[in-house]
Every structure is written in structure tokens, then in C-alpha cells.
Design a protein that fits this description.
mainly alpha, two-stranded antiparallel sheet, 7 helices, about 5% strand, disordered N terminus
Amino acid sequence: MSGARPPTAASARNVDLLDRLLEHDRWTTAKLLDLCRPLTDEQLDHPFDIGHRSLRAPLDHLIFNVEVWSGLMSGRITARADVRHGETSVAALDDRLDRAAAELSAVSHAVRDRQGWDESWIDILDTPPVERTYGGAIAHVITHSMHHRAQALHMLRALGVANVPESDVLSWEAQHSA
């Protein structure tokens, strides 16, 4: 093929698209939580005229979303009573992110390995329950997180936090291909 380039460090690692998206999703949210560690509760809960209205809220919401959707797809959540909202301190959010990202990764890899992207499952939390595909739900979780991270990035900048990252996939890849 003309114009072909030698493999980069990232391509030499042979990271597929799913792993790129999942790893970027986890890494970027963790980077935002790291930026939040020195902030006060007043700063985390400062009202903004965007999204969930405070910095803590969209971070909690996006992690809760990963927890719930992963739990539904894995079968861990089988009833509304199984859905519990976790703690929202930055340390607790980071712990919740670790667990939720691991579950999403496990579910996603199982789906990929069996090529089950178009298999369906029942979302029991909708009224009435709705049939969804694994591929659609996994894509939803990842893009939903990106949407709320963009809100959090805006809020961090408005609070005057320094070194707020670009947070795109290419930034993640540059950090992880060295």
C-alpha cells in the first residue's frame, strides 16, 4: 500500500478500538477526578448554569451511569432495588470509577469476544422495560461519559483550575504509547 507508515508504539501494542475507547474513558475521568482532589466542597458544589449544575454532579452522574448500565448488562442488577447511589467525595468517586470501569470492561470484552454486539437484553429500569443491544448500550455509556466530562472540563476551567487536559483519545494515546 503506498503511503503506508511504520507501526507506531500504539499500533505495536495492538490496542483495538474497544480497548482504546474503554481505556480512554476510564483514564480521562480519573484525570478529572485528580484535578478535583485539591478543590473544596464549596468549589465542587459551586452552581453553574450548565448540565447538572455543579462539578461534583456530572462526575457522579457519569460514574453512576457506568455502574448502572454495566450492572444491567452483566445481570448484576435484576431489579430497581439493586440500584444504589454511592458516595460522592472525590475519593469515593475514584473508587466507584475503578469498580464501574472494570465491570464495563468485562462486559464489553465478553460481548466483543462472542461478537454479540447486536444481541439484545432487557433494560428493566425503563417503564415499560425496553429491549436494547449490547453494542448500542456500550456505545451509549462511553459517549454519555464524554458529554458529561465536557461539562466538567468547562467547570474546572471556570473555577480557574490549571492544566485542564484536552482529554481527547489522541491525548490518551500519546500518554500511553511511550
